Amino acid sequence: MMALRWQVLHKWLALLIGLQLLLWIVSGLALNLIPSEVFNTELHRNQAKPAALGINQPPMMSLATLAAKLPNQHLLSVELIQVHGKPMYKLLLKDKLQLTPPQTAYYWAMGSTADFNPVSWDLKMLAELARSSYQPWPLQSSRLQQDSEPQQNSEPLETIAQPHIAKLHFSAPQLLQRGEGGFQTQDPVYLVTVNDEAQTRIYLNGASGEVLAHKNSRSNIKEWLFMLHFMDYAPDNGLSFNHLWTQIVALLSLLLGISGAALLIKRLYQGHFSLKSYFQQGFKPSCIQVFGKHDEPLSRLSLQPGMLLTSLNHPKERIATQCGGGGSCGLCMVRFMGTAPIAQEADLAKISRRKLDKGYRLSCQHDAADCQALTPERTELNIALATLGQLSTWSD
């Protein structure tokens, strides 16, 4: 029974691992063969770069002044960033008086010490930031520009496209739950949706005002393909590839290999891959005489090396099985009309004790050389079919 349990385990593990392998291949081919423009995640994002900081602009806050303005905070890190053309400090602060995790804060970088204030955005300002990050459909804008070229006093492209943006509806910024949208940040994340042809979604950092990403219906397909390819089925996996699902599949693959090795060793022990059928001297039974269920003669077949099922299905399939000779379906059961070989584990699991006593065995579990040893003085093995289904499909 233990071998059958290993076989069932091996079958289901192969199904699960094979299904994931198929998803990995299909998603990988799709990501490589389909042009990247099809999955453009920033189809309507304004790609204009912010202007560089000029020498005539007000001086930025020094780090010494910055630290002095925060006497109760440990300044763990400072990063100068530029959001919508304005420099600001991104600070990682830890409270000196309380045992709390470090917090991220944003402060404007320019101005006098009296103007040192944290960055703050209300919903109306966030909505304007989302709107400014949006650009019209590029093909439509190109046509408008081409149509306007013959005119001497044509307006700039941005001015021409502005009425098309005005026709769109931008939703009010909606605060998302932490981790929703796939952004690993402690700052609040807001979502603005646009009723355009691509169903654009704009994600903003509510603390800094940064536009985190543009997503749309096309990027959803790309995210699904990446999810299938990297087995990223849990929403909180982050950017790590060594997540729980990868570890589970790795463990299942290890069990698949162990179960396959156990079945291979078992079959070697049973003689499934033995070469004695090829090299054993005095191999007398060269034929199999096949009888029907009621002992009427049906066919005379040549005895082939290997399992008896191999001989019964040579050179064409006469007895169909579902397990391919694994001993789990029981469809290859036959009756030995002479001395039957010793019942194997699969025989005991699939055949009743009464039929075992009458010589019923699974033909996929017994080697021709073992059966030859039971009939040393005969030149034929007499085998009877066991079921009406075998009779209905039997042919010479």
Considering the chains and any ligands shown, give keywords for the structure.
396 residues; alpha+beta; 5-stranded mixed β-sheet; 4-stranded antiparallel β-sheet; 13 helices; 17% strand; elongated
Short description:
The protein is of the alpha+beta class and 396 residues long.
Outline the structure in words.
The chain is of the alpha+beta class and 396 residues long. Helices cover 36% and strands 17% of the residues. The chain has helices at 2-33, 63-68, 123-132, 138-148, 157-166, 217-230, 244-270, 276-279, 308-312, 345-350, 353-357, 368-374, 388-393; strands at 73-83, 86-95, 103-108, 174-175, 189-193, 201-205, 211-215, 287-291, 297-302, 333-336, 360-362, 380-385. The strands form three sheets. Strands 9-8-12-10-11 form a five-stranded mixed beta sheet. The longest helix has 32 residues, at 2-33.
